[in-house]
Design brief:
- This protein is mainly beta.
- About 5% of the residues lie in helices and about 50% in strands.
- The strands form three sheets. Strands 8-10-11-12-13-14-15-16 form an eight-stranded antiparallel β-barrel. Strands 3-2-5-6-7 form a five-stranded antiparallel sheet, covered by helices on one side.
- The radius of gyration is 31 Å and the shape is rod-shaped.
- The two termini are about 50 Å apart.
Length: about 300
């Protein structure tokens, strides 16, 4: 029975030929398609055979969630393979190398057409040189195809994740740890609203300010307004993120407390779409002045990303 790698290899070989015929209207762009079970994303590697070096050189590495890529290639020998990744961003066993050749065909009619021929050769063979014909009087030179124009690479678009803007609301029950400011009993009547903007850094971590308002109508009515420093780390698929926040809050209620509340927390996010997310985690609040008090707030909520 074929394993997953053999299945992927077989489907690549079948689907490539099909999609090439289907999308042959554009002679400069070719579609490479495949199929694999239980794959979340793919990494596609293209290599070109350099006759001078007698080896393959990597020319393109593409990450995609689709089961195809479109690529424009000049004349030459190539090979490519597909590496599936699961939902946890772990690579599976890659497919075998698929070998093909891009050739230019002159079929006797005006104009030229760029074709792709697929091949299972382990290495491309250099075309055999035919013996030069004997000189004839006044030979008619054959037309030579025009050189393949070199197109400037397209600029890479700016990732949507360069700047993250979030607005969220969460249910945040309160568990007092010590002191009496936050009460003595577990309270389920707490909510938190947040708004933040975070910018991507060279370390692939988003940093930025966050405003938060927390209200609890439990044993002691508590209302705080805070400012935090937010740090968010997006995973490569940009569907899951983890992060932490650290900052301070001013107690609006209860009255009579003038000390700033120190706060920090950790959280995880799951993005259902580009705009809707689920956020869950915990926050810890502490009053270092008199009266000393502290509490933990687990929370879960939804938010919007722009």
């Amino acid at each position: 029975m074929p394993n997953n790698r053999q299945k992927l290899h077989l489907l690549i070989a079948i689907l490539i030929c099909f999609t090439h015929s289907l999308f042959a209207q554009d002679e400069n762009v070719h579609r490479f398609a495949w199929s694999s079970e239980n794959a979340f994303m793919y990494e596609v590697i293209f290599e070109r055979f350099e006759i001078e070096d007698d080896s393959y050189i990597e020319i393109e590495r593409i990450t995609t969630k689709e089961e195809f890529v479109e690529l424009s290639l000049p004349v030459g020998y190539y090979r490519f393979r597909v590496i599936p990744y699961d939902v946890l961003e772990k690579p599976s066993e890659p497919s075998d190398w698929e070998y093909f050749e891009v050739i230019r065909r002159v079929d006797g009619e005006p104009g030229q057409e760029l074709k792709i021929e697929f091949d299972d050769r382990p290495e491309p063979e250099e075309p055999e040189t035919e013996p030069e014909p004997e000189p004839k009087p006044e030979p008619i030179p054959e037309p030579t195809p025009a050189p393949e124009p070199e197109l400037a690479p397209e600029p890479k678009p700016v990732s949507k994740s360069d700047t993250i803007i979030n607005i969220s609301a969460a249910w945040s029950p309160m568990l007092p740890i010590y002191g009496h400011v936050f009460g003595e009993d577990f309270s389920v009547a707490g909510v938190t609203a947040r708004a933040s903007i975070a910018f991507k850094t060279p370390f692939n971590i988003h940093l930025g300010p966050e405003l938060s308002v927390t209200y609890d109508a439990g044993e002691n009515t508590i209302l705080t307004a805070g400012l935090n420093l937010l740090a968010v780390k997006l995973l490569p698929n940009e569907k899951i993120a983890i992060g932490f926040r650290i900052g301070a809050a001013y107690p609006v209620l209860p009255e009579g407390i003038d000390d700033i509340i120190a706060a920090f927390g950790a959280f995880g996010r799951f993005y259902f779409t580009d705009f809707l997310m689920l956020e869950a985690g915990f926050d810890y609040s502490n009053i270092f002045g008199e009266p000393h008090s502290g509490c933990i707030r687990p929370f879960i909520g939804i938010g919007l990303q722009f």
